[in-house]
Design goal:
- The complex is a heterodimer of chains A (about 400) and B (about 675).
- Chain A contains 17 helices and three strands.
- In chain A, strands 1-2-3 form a three-stranded antiparallel sheet, with helices on one face.
- In chain A, α1 packs antiparallel against α15 and α8 packs antiparallel against α16.
- Chain A is mainly α and about 400 residues long.
- The radius of gyration of chain A is 22 Å and the shape is globular.
- In chain A, β1 and β2 form a beta hairpin.
- Chain B has about 675 residues and is an alpha+beta fold.
- Chain B has 23 helices and 26 strands.
- The longest helix of chain B has 30 residues.
- The C terminus of chain B is likely disordered.
- Classes of the chains: A mainly alpha (about 400), B alpha+beta (about 675).
- Chains A and B meet through α8, α13, α14, α15 and α16 of A and α1, α2 and α3 of B.
Chain lengths: ~400, ~675
């Protein structure tokens, strides 16, 4: 590594990371364009109403917000951590009452002509608050009270987001919180206990949902969520429904199963048929011919479009860009001037990683379909703004880093 | 390096985080490598299965040409109007949206009525009941109504514009929509020129309706040479040497009988394939030709179209409701110049769609049996024309002095059976006996020692009782008694007497009689008859396969003296005023011929209407070139019924020869001239 310049404050941003982020944004606009400018939609909307353009606007806004976050020392930001946290909790409660019901879930609030997804911002507020809370001296973390308080911080937004329901957004909070607890220096036995408990609960939950007869089922989850899990674990609907059902009903369920697994199947066909070098930008058949889900191909399934049109080369590019962002993020964590900065950086990196892993994993059936956006690539204002603000925080930590 | 620096960090917590992130990314990379590189082929196939439909396109069928290259079977453009469902999908959506709104309103009204009736709000559960809810089947039904409405309107509109009734069945439409959405739906086939013009003028902006041109088999001369051509039937299967795995097949035909059947493999060509890309709704998005169709091979016949037509016309005029056949052959090489069979049919009939009754009328009428080629597929007793063979046998055996006088009583007793004779009582030498067709004369010759065996041996040289192989599986072989049969104890003099006048054990086809007559005319060469001279690629004259002319099947091995005696007697049959075949005579040529009337026992007794009459002849006598053989079932007599047919055919041949000498070998009717 090149010797650092000895200065009290190094105002330089991490250029490598910024370059990777910019490339991701360019890819995003190109493929939101490709995913949305198919079929009749080409002629319907004027250019400034089209998603690729709106995505550019979101990026500009996001870069502005990130720059603003950079300007203020993260110590100042962290003073507002709990205000942000409780505000986000309030918004999560609010969305359950005033949110618009879209696809059977209340995740969005209408605000000034935009739909805002509070959970995207709640994730950031959670990281900020958690980092602030855990940045206390390591000795204090040995107290069970502090540990359980931290768990409580995690559980509150988790449960509220689950209630919307938005399983994916809720789930990413768990590894994020866990990583922050771990890096903060929480005693290992606490974490082992927590993980064991979590694993047991998860197994019980899955067994209950997937295998228990309907009458004995304890956990009540949304029908569509159960179906997604059934599809992921390859359980057929008919046997899940239990015992004596008519042949017609069985056939009906089989068809529903086929339809529900449709999106994942189509995404996998898109990814797989991309091959090594892909079918070319705007020439992906799965995308062009409408086999990829129209509602999701520009956001949750954007990776399938990229993978189909750019092939394995494109997938590697995307993974490489995220790797650059993630590992520069870890480097920033290592160079952070204090525990607060380190924990913030770890939180952001883990959150980003969880999104990337769940989203891309879903396209190749490594993960169930949970509706998690791919940060900076997926279309969506809240996601883009949230991701860029998080990146702004990382850069902020980088700028106020330890200087050797 | 950035990544490895993080993996080697001395901060254990961050190191674990880095390792986890690295592991996760590596796992994704491995997964993507597996899906996109290793299993890529599997997913590409899946993609093709759901987004590509393959369609077999028929090849242009090869032409069948006469000896001068004039088409007997060709192709014509057939204009059809097709409905392109994908072009209507936006209209479908608009109508569906309208119907949906209306349906929602109605459901809301129904709910409101129910609520006032109950005096309370309906619960969420109750609202989900099928009479209030917009269920999936209801939506599908509305979509069906919408697309039927749009499509049937488009068709009705077209119907009004072209002023034709265009039937479109809703069930059929739905079936097509379900099964073959990727293909255009044929609406109206085979437009006439005025309809084509009207459609072109008015339909420029009609969405969803387009005209396409198809190549369709066409027999420009209608029934001419129908029995030689055979017929086609609808069959879109793949040929042996082409791709057989298609989702859809466009209409194609397969030759069933005749030359269309025999040369089907060559004529049919190789069907091409196109792949149609469809979207997630199954609508066509575009198509590419995967393999272009290769046109079939042309088949060039030995048939002369002019003579063929003349022969058919002459045969038709022989009598009312004629059943019979004509064969015209080149005496010097066995080429079939014309072959006609009556009653006939129009092979164009098989290319259209017909009702069951129409099919029945053609295929299963046992009286008509129009599909039977009577020149090859029917056994006939040769009657008196077989006396040519009997005479030759007796002459060769050396037991017949052609100039010796023979007294006939006008009948002959064989055993206790009396055989009558139309030639009447009188003195006969060979020439007069053949010309007047005296039965006693020839029966007497046949019964002379050694002659019977000679007849059989000579019949074998003529290859009677054997197929010529002209069109395999569509020929009967007739019958010639074997030497063993005639020497057995079951064979009596009565059988010999019958054989001597061409009845009883002997049956032949007109084609065999033509070969026989040609052998007598050309000095004793029995030719393998030839119908196809060569095959050549479509649109070219460079032959692929040549079938050489004048393949010798056998030689008679009889003296020229005997042949001359028979030929001169045949000449007398036509040229002398009292000859039975005098009606065949034409000015300018000397024709040699022999008439025959075979009595056929039907239902156990002789019946005049079942007789079949013959005329076998060749001309010009001096340099024999043409053989004309005619048979008519139930004719009055060979001389009265068949000789006039020969007369007309010879006139036509003569005229054709004069045309040829004036303008040597005109190359008529090439494809370019024949097609508009």
């Amino acid at each position: 590594m090149t010797p650092q310049i000895h200065r009290e404050r190094e105002m330089r941003v991490d250029l490598l990371q910024v370059a990777a982020l910019l490339l991701l944004m360019v890819l995003s606009v190109a493929f939101v364009y490709s995913a949305t400018m198919t079929g009749d939609s080409v002629v319907i909307a004027t250019w400034y109403h089209q998603r690729w353009f709106r995505q550019i606007v979101f990026f500009v806004l996001g870069i502005g917000a990130a720059s603003a976050v950079c300007m203020v020392d993260y110590h100042v930001l962290s003073r507002w951590a709990f205000v942000a946290y409780w505000a986000s909790i309030l918004s999560l409660i609010g969305v359950l009452f005033v949110g618009s019901l879209i696809y059977g879930a209340r995740r969005w609030v209408q605000f000034a002509g935009f739909q805002i997804q509070p959970s995207e911002f709640a994730k950031l507020a959670f990281i900020l608050a958690m980092a602030h809370f855990l940045s206390r001296p390591v000795d204090e973390l040995r107290q069970p009270r502090i540990f359980w308080q931290a768990i409580g911080f995690m559980a509150l937004p988790f449960l509220l987001i689950m209630k919307e329901p938005d399983l994916g957004s809720a789930l990413v909070l768990l590894p994020t919180g866990l990583a922050m607890l771990f890096v903060a220096g929480t005693p290992r036995e606490y974490l082992v206990q927590l993980l064991t408990l979590g694993a047991v609960l998860a197994v019980l939950f899955l067994v209950d949902v997937l295998f228990a007869p309907q009458s004995l089922r304890i956990v009540k989850i949304q029908e569509y969520q159960m179906r997604r899990l059934l599809v992921y674990f390859g359980r057929d609907y008919a046997s899940n429904k239990g015992g004596n059902i008519s042949e017609a009903e069985r056939a009906n369920l089989r068809e529903e199963e086929f339809n529900d697994s449709h999106n994942v199947r189509q995404a996998m066909i898109a990814v797989g048929s991309g091959g090594l070098t892909g079918e070319g930008w705007r020439h992906g058949q799965q995308n062009e011919l409408g086999f990829l889900p129209v509602a999701g191909k520009h956001n949750d399934f954007i990776f399938a479009v990229i993978a189909e049109e750019l092939g394995f080369v494109g997938s590697v590019t995307v993974l490489a860009l995220y790797s650059v962002v993630l590992f520069t993020g870890i480097r920033i964590a290592g160079q952070a001037r204090d525990r607060l900065g380190k924990l913030l950086a770890v939180g952001v990196v883990t959150l980003l990683f969880s999104h990337v892993f769940i989203n891309i994993g879903m396209n190749i059936r490594l993960m169930p379909v949970t509706g998690v956006p791919l940060p900076l690539l997926s279309y969506g204002g809240s996601s883009v703004l949230g991701s860029l603000i998080a990146m702004g925080m990382l850069q902020n930590i980088h700028m106020y880093r330890k200087v050797y | 390096m950035l990544i490895f620096d993080q993996l080697k960090k001395d901060d254990p917590q961050l190191r674990l985080l880095a390792v986890t992130v690295f592991g996760g990314m590596a796992l994704l990379l491995a997964g993507l490598w597996w899906v996109q590189v290793v299993s890529s082929h599997y997913y590409q196939e899946k993609l093709e299965v759901q987004s590509i439909r393959t369609v077999r396109m028929p090849a242009i069928r090869g032409q069948i040409l006469d000896r001068d290259g004039r088409p007997i079977a060709e192709n014509r453009p057939c204009y059809n109007i097709d409905l392109y469902l994908e072009d209507l999908s936006r209209s479908n959506q608009a109508v569906y949206a309208y119907l949906l709104t209306a349906e929602k309103k109605q459901l809301a009204r129904r709910m409101a009525t129910e609520e006032t009736r109950l005096g309370r709000k309906l619960t969420t559960q109750e609202k989900k009941q099928s009479q209030f809810a917009l269920t999936l089947p209801l939506k599908e039904q509305l979509q069906q109504v919408a697309r039927w409405w749009v499509s049937s309107n488009a068709v009705a509109d077209l119907s009004a514009r072209l002023q034709v009734n265009i039937p479109l069945d809703e069930k059929e439409f739905e079936k097509r929509y379900d099964k073959a959405r990727a293909l255009p739906l044929p609406i109206l086939a085979n437009l006439d020129p005025s309809q084509v013009a009207r459609f072109e003028e008015q339909s420029i902006h009609t969405p969803g309706l387009e005209m396409d041109v198809q190549s369709l088999r066409y027999y420009p001369n209608g029934p001419a040479a129908a029995h030689l051509l055979g017929f086609l039937s609808h069959d879109s299967k793949s040929s042996d040497n082409e791709e057989s795995d298609y989702n859809y097949r466009l209409e194609d035909f397969v030759g069933k009988t005749g030359l269309e059947g025999l040369y089907d493999k060559e004529l049919r060509g190789i069907g091409g394939g196109k792949s149609v890309v469809v979207n997630n709704l199954g609508y066509r998005q575009g198509e590419t030709i995967v393999s272009p169709a290769e046109p079939g091979t042309n088949v060039v016949l030995t048939i002369d179209l002019d003579i063929q037509k003349a022969a058919e016309t002459a045969l038709q005029q022989a009598q009312a409701n004629v059943h019979g056949a004509v064969v015209v052959m080149d005496a010097q090489n066995g080429d079939v110049l014309a072959m006609a069979s009556a009653p006939t049919y129009d092979p164009n009939f098989f290319l259209q769609h017909h009702t069951a009754e129409e099919w029945d009328g053609l295929l299963n009428d046992t009286n008509t049996r129009a599909l039977v080629n009577r020149a090859m597929q029917e056994n006939y007793a040769p009657g008196s024309i077989f006396k040519i063979v009997v005479g030759l046998a007796a002459l060769e055996q050396g037991v017949l002095d052609p100039r010796a006088s023979f007294h006939s009583d006008g009948y002959i007793m064989v055993g206790r059976r009396r055989i009558n004779d139309t030639a009447g009582e009188g003195e006969f030498d060979f020439s007069r006996a053949l010309a007047k067709s005296s039965n006693p004369y020839f029966i007497t010759q046949g019964l002379k020692p050694g002659v019977l065996a000679r007849i059989v041996a000579l019949g074998q040289r003529f290859h009677l009782g054997e197929r010529t192989g002209l069109i395999p599986h569509q020929e009967t072989k007739g019958n010639l008694p074997t030497l063993d049969e005639v020497r057995s104890s079951a064979w009596h003099d009565g059988d010999t007497a019958n054989l001597s006048i061409g009845q009883g054990a002997i049956v032949v086809t007109p084609l065999q009689m033509a070969v026989m007559t040609a052998a007598v005319a050309n000095g004793g060469t029995v030719f393998q008859p030839r119908l196809v001279s060569k095959t050549e690629p479509y649109g070219s004259e460079e032959p692929i396969q040549i079938f050489p002319a004048g393949q010798v099947r056998d030689t008679l091995g009889v003296s020229q003296r005997s042949l001359n005696i028979v030929r001169e007697a045949m000449l007398a049959d036509v040229e002398s005023a009292e000859g039975t075949g005098h009606d065949a005579a034409i000015p300018g040529w000397h024709i040699a011929g022999k008439t025959g009337t075979a009595e056929v026992e039907k239902n156990g007794h002789k019946e005049k209407s079942a007789d079949n009459t013959w005329f076998a002849s060749f001309a010009p006598f001096e340099h024999p070139r043409y053989v004309v053989v005619i048979t008519v079932e139930g004719g009055a007599s060979g001389g009265k019924t068949c000789a006039p047919v020969a007369h007309k055919i010879y006139l036509a041949i003569q005229q054709r020869e004069q045309e040829r000498s004036r303008a040597p070998a005109p190359k008529l009717g090439t494809l370019a001239e024949a097609q508009p």
